[in-house]
Amino acid sequence: MRLLIDTVILIDHFKNIPAATSYLREHQGDIAISAITRAEVLAGFSPSDAALAAQLLNRLWTLPVDERVADLAVALRREYGLSLIDAMQAALAKIHDLTFVTRNIRDFPPERFDFVLIPYRI
Q1: Tens of pLDDT along 15-61?
Q2: pLDDT tens, residue by residue, 67-91
Q3: Which one, of 29, 13, 69, lies nearest residue 77 by Cα?
Q4: What class does CATH assign to 3-117?
C-alpha cells in the first residue's frame, strides 16, 4: 500500500473517465482508500447500484479515522484552511506515509503539498 486514493478519482472511474480507470488498474496492488472516501462514493449511488460500487471498494484497503488522524486533521485544517474532510484525507496520507492521489489541485496544489500526486487532468 503506497497510495491513498481520493474520492474524486473513484468518481471519475465510475463516470467512465479512461484516465481514472487506467490509473486504478495500473496501481491496483498499491491502493488504499479512507473510510471517508468509501462513504462518499457509496452515498453517490442508489441502493441498487451501491452493491456494484462496493464490489470495487471491497478490494481496496480501507483506512479508518482514529484519534491520531482526527488530531492531525485539526492541525492541518488550521494551518492550510482545508475543509475538515480534506484535512482528514491529508492526515491519513501523512500518518500512513502514503501519497495522496487526487485531481483536486484547488485544495491540494502539489507544489504546496509534497505528498500529493495529480495523476491526470480533465
Answers
A1: 999 999 999 999 999 999 999 999 999 999 998 899 989 999 999 99
A2: 999 999 999 999 999 999 999 999 9
A3: 69
A4: alpha beta
**77 alpha-carbon distance from chain centroid:** 17
Which cell goes with 70? 482526527
The domain segmentation of the chain, as residue ranges, is: 3-117
Cβ-based neighbours of 100, under 8 Å, separated by 6 or more: 3, 4, 6, 89, 90, 93, 108, 113, 115, 116, 117
Output the pLDDT for position 39. 97
Between CA 21 and CA 16 the distance in angstroms is 7
**How many other C-beta atoms can be found within 10 angstroms of the C-beta atom of residue 97?**
10
